[in-house]
UniProtKB/TrEMBL annotation:
Its EC number is 4.2.1.51. It catalyses: prephenate + H(+) = 3-phenylpyruvate + CO2 + H2O. GO terms for biological process: L-phenylalanine biosynthetic process. Pathway: Amino-acid biosynthesis; L-phenylalanine biosynthesis; phenylpyruvate from prephenate: step 1/1. This is prephenate dehydratase. It is an enzyme of class 4 (lyase). One of its GO terms (cellular component) is cytoplasm.
Length: 278
């Protein structure tokens, strides 16, 4: 065990904050890309990876789901982080002087109203904390960053406007990846099962797959589709359901899914984390 948890971004990023809150006993390990996060755990450089998958304002983090089919890692937990963005710049900068704001594309998307109201142009950076570092290094008083409060402390910036996200419910959901499966048994408490599947090329295959979950009384909490193989007719689906594969009604639903699918990959079984609206 390394005692480390990998995340994409630089120190001060929201993923860094999620690591500190969810796993305070582990050392956060910053990684340049999501691929690097997965690789760090696969190589044994980290025990876990904190991976954002969706946000209540900006939607899904598309890059992640294209990495899931090829990884051998398992989803072992989920975590919900309320997102609070601050506009930060060099000390002494006035809000009226800011012409451009740098941030991750998801950060810009979650603060559209503020940027429009103040006539500030959004500029995409690799991540939110990295944008703060860039502002500190460039020394341009017309440039600001949209990033978490922690980034202002890390890079010595001054906060010009607080909590500029478009909605107070702004929350990002993370999944935690590991080389080992979660130690959770049927009956231990509410659980989720995540999986990928590709339906057979027959009429109403997806309808029949979903029917198995309906008839067995299983709640499907997520279903997303992705084109694969450069084709507009070959589709892969990522799904999450409430329940454990060892529960009989879940077994029956997965058996029916398998009959109408040409592939099925279980990505993890993990405890359900309560999402609290703040």
């Amino acid at each position: 065990m390394t005692g480390k948890i990998a995340y994409q971004g630089e120190p001060g990023a929201n993923s860094h904050i999620a690591c500190n809150e969810a796993y305070p006993h582990l050392e956060p390990l910053p990684c340049r890309t999501f691929e690097d996060c997965f690789a760090a755990v696969e190589r044994g450089d980290a025990d876990l990876a904190m991976i954002p998958v969706e946000n209540t304002i900006a939607g899904r983090v598309g890059d992640i789901h294209y990495l899931l089919p090829s990884t051998q890692l398992q989803i072992v937990a989920e975590y919900y982080l309320p997102i609070r963005f601050q506009l930060m710049a060099l000390p002494g900068t006035k809000l009226a002087a800011v012409k451009k704001a740098r941030s991750h594309i998801m950060g810009l998307g979650q603060c559209r109203n503020f940027l429009r109201e103040h006539g500030i142009e959004g500029v995409t950076s690799a991540d939110t904390a990295g944008a703060a570092r860039e502002v500190a290094e460039l020394g341009d008083s017309t440039l600001a960053a949209i990033a978490p409060r922690l980034a202002a402390d890390v890079y010595g910036l001054e906060i010009l406007a607080e909590d500029i996200e478009d909605a107070t419910h702004n929350t990002t959901r993370f999944i935690i990846m590991s080389r080992e499966q979660a130690e959770i048994e049927a009956g231990d408490g509410p659980a989720k099962t995540a999986f990928l599947f590709e339906v057979r090329n027959i009429p109403a295959a997806l309808y029949k797959v979903l029917g198995g979950f309906a008839t067995n009384g299983i709640n499907m909490t997520k279903l997303e589709s992705y084109l694969i193989g450069g084709s507009f007719v070959s589709t892969q689906f990522y799904a999450e359901i409430s329940g454990h594969p060892d529960e009989r009604h879940v077994q029956l639903a997965l058996e029916e899914l398998g009959f109408f699918s040409q592939s099925l990959k279980i990505l993890g079984v993990f405890p359900t984390s309560e999402y609290v609206l703040v």
